Amino acid sequence: MATHAPPGVDDEGQATSEQEYVDAVSDTVIAGIPTYNEEIAIGSVVSRAQEYADEVVVVDDGSTDNTVQIARSVGATVIEHEENKGKGGAIRTLLQYTTNTDVDSLVVLDGDGQHLPEDIPDVVEPVLEGDCDISIGSRYVEEEQTETPFHRRFGQRVLDYLTMGSSGENLSDTQSGFRALSPRAAQDLRLRTDGMGVESEMIDDASQKDLSIQEVPIDIRYDGIDGQTHNPLVHGLSVVMFILQLVRDRHPLVFFGGPGLLLTVFGTLYGLDGILIYQNSGTFYPAKVLVAGFSTILGVLGIFCGLILNQIANMVAELREEL
Questions:
Q1: What is the distance between the alpha carbons of residues 86 and 320, in angstroms, rounded to a whole number?
Q2: How large is the average pLDDT for residues 192-198?
Q3: Is 13 domain-assigned?
Q4: Which of 108, 136, 99, 106 is nearest to 30 (CA)?
Q5: Mean pLDDT score, 23-33
Q6: What is the mean pLDDT of residues 269-296?
Q7: With CB atoms counted within 10 Å of each terminal CB, which end of the chain scores lower, N or C?
Q8: 4: pLDDT strictly greater than 90
C-alpha cells in the first residue's frame, strides 16, 4: 500500500519548494462525506480528512446510530436529512452546499473507511491545476492485479461497460465514489437519481455537458470495513436499472431501435424459414408464421419509436442549449 507524505513534504521527506507549498495551501478544498449509519468509521475519516481539506462536510442521510454526534464531535460541518434519501440525494446536497460557498474544489469520499483521506491531495490535484473538471480516484487505472474480491470486480466491470456505453467515456473505475469536482462541475451537474446510480449519472451528465474527466490511482481498504449498507447484488441491479433508464431517456434510438432491429431481422428470417419449409414439404406451421409476424411487427414499431423519440430528444437538447 502506498504511503503518503504530509503537506509541504515530498515522498523522500524533503520540503517542497516555497512556491509549491504556497500554491498548495492557497486553494480552498471542501471534503464532502455522504453517510448512513457509519458511526464506526466516521470519526477517523473526518479527522484524517481535516488534514487535507479546509472544511469537512458530512451529509447524514437519516442515520439511526450515532453518526451525527460523532461527526460533530470531531469538528465536521453536519447537514442532516430528516429521512433517508439515498446516496444520490446526499450528493445533491453536497453540490448545493458547494455552489453557495467560495471553494476551488469539492472532493467526495465515502464515510466507511474504504477510501483513504491521505489520497485527497492526489485526487484533487488535477482539478486544482485546471487539467479537468472531474477527477476520479481509480482502484484499477495502474494495477493489473487488485485486492478487490473477484465477484465484486466482475460486477464492477459490467457496470463500467454499461456506463461507458451510455456516456462514451473510457474509464477504468466508473463506480468509484472518490472524486473531486471543480466549481464549474458542481454548478453544472444536474443529478436526479436518489440511489446508488449517482456515480454513473455523474459521468453521463458530465459527458453531456462537455466536462472533462481524468482518473488518478488511489489505494483502497477492504480489511476491517464494517460492510456495505446495501447488498452488493441489490446495489448492482439498481445501478444497472438506472443506467438502462439513462440510455432510454438520452439515447432512445439505441434503446428502442437496437432491439427493434434484432426483432425485425429475427422475424424476417424465421418467416422465410417457414415459407421454405412449406415450399419444399407442403407442411404449414401456423405457430411459426404467428411468431415471425409478431416479431417483425414489434421490431418495426421499436425502430419507429426509436426514430421518433430520438428526434424529440434532439429537439429538447437544442432547446436546453438555447436556454
A1: 28
A2: 82
A3: no
A4: 106
A5: 79
A6: 91
A7: C
A8: no
Arithmetic mean of pLDDT, 148-152: 56
What's the grid cell of residue 299? 421490431
Write down the pLDDT at residue 196.
Answer: 72
According to DSSP, the residues that pair with 303 across neighbouring strands are none
- Considering the domain architecture, whether residues 245 and 268 belong to the same structural domain is answered as no
List the domain range (segments joined by +) for residue 290: 251-322
- Does one domain contain both 266 and 279? yes
Place of cell 465536521: 76
Is 77:57 a contact under the CB 8 Å cutoff? yes
State phi, psi for 303 to the nearest 5 degrees. Answer: -65, -45
pLDDT computed for residue 192 by the predictor: 86
Q: For residue 98, give the C-alpha cell.
A: 458547494
173-208 exposure pattern, b = at least 16 Cβ within 10 A, e = fewer: bbbbbbbbbbbebbebbebebbbbbbbbbbbbbbbb
**Looking at residue 159, what is its pLDDT?**
60
Cell numbers linked to 291? 411468431
How many Cβ atoms from other residues are within 10 Å of residue 17's Cβ?
10
Taking alpha carbons only, the member of 108, 113, 102, 99 closest to residue 38 is: 113
Q: How far is CA 298 from CA 64, 235, 256, 305, in A?
A: 49, 32, 11, 10
Other C-beta atoms within 10 Å of 210: how many? Answer: 8
CB 115 within 8 A of CB 137: yes
The single-letter DSSP state of residue 174 is: T
* All cell numbers assigned to 53: 481539506
Question: Same structural domain for residues 204 and 315?
Answer: no
pLDDT band for position 144 (cuts 50, 70, 90):
low
Cβ atoms < 10 Å from Cβ of 96: 14
> How many domains would you assign to the chain?
2
Mean pLDDT throughout 264-272?
94
Say which residues have a Cβ less than 8 Å from residue 18's Cβ, sequence separation at least 6.
none
Q: What is the pLDDT of residue 197?
A: 82
Domain co-membership, 233 together with 285: no
CA–CA gap between residue 166 and residue 8 (Å, rounded):
41
CA triple 163-258-210, angle to 5 deg: 40
Which three cell numbers, joined as nine digits, stand for 11? 515522498
Domain identity same for 304 and 212: no
Count of Cβ atoms closer than 10 Å to residue 2 Cβ: 11
